[in-house]
Amino acid sequence: MAVWRRDHHGYPVEPGLIHHSDAGSQYTSVKFTESLALQGLSASMGSVGDAYDNALAESIIGLFKAEVINRHGPFKTLAEVEFALMEWADWYNNARLHSRLGYLTPAEYEAAYYSQYPPRRPALV
């Protein structure tokens, strides 16, 4: 989604970006790592404690569990959890006020950053 969004707004992701995730089987699959490589991205898979450990992903998962699952559960269906996740991810990425960003939302901060530069054309695939 991030790659599409950046491309859509004329600011394609530069090669070398690292995709952080936990070590779930969907993220360690050949198909997923191939799709990352096609976009010029690297997976953050590594051994525990090295520079590629997944502390960031685990921290985000912990926030989701504390703020949504524990507060609004129990959920009765997978669809309820998926919908709650989509709502929370949208809020987290677009609407939450962030003290390290001067109490702007991540979307506002990113828009202000990119307003300093002319849009680039998305890469043709």
From TrEMBL:
Signal peptide: none annotated. Residues 1-114 form the Integrase catalytic domain. PANTHER family: TRANSPOSASE INSF FOR INSERTION SEQUENCE IS3B-RELATED (PTHR46889), TRANSPOSASE INSO FOR INSERTION SEQUENCE ELEMENT IS911B-RELATED (PTHR46889:SF4). The lineage of its organism: Bacteria, Bacillati, Actinomycetota, Actinomycetes, Pseudonocardiales. InterPro entries: Integrase_cat-core, RNaseH-like_sf, RNaseH_sf, Transposase_IS3/IS150/IS904. SUPFAM superfamilies: Ribonuclease H-like. This is Integrase catalytic domain-containing protein.
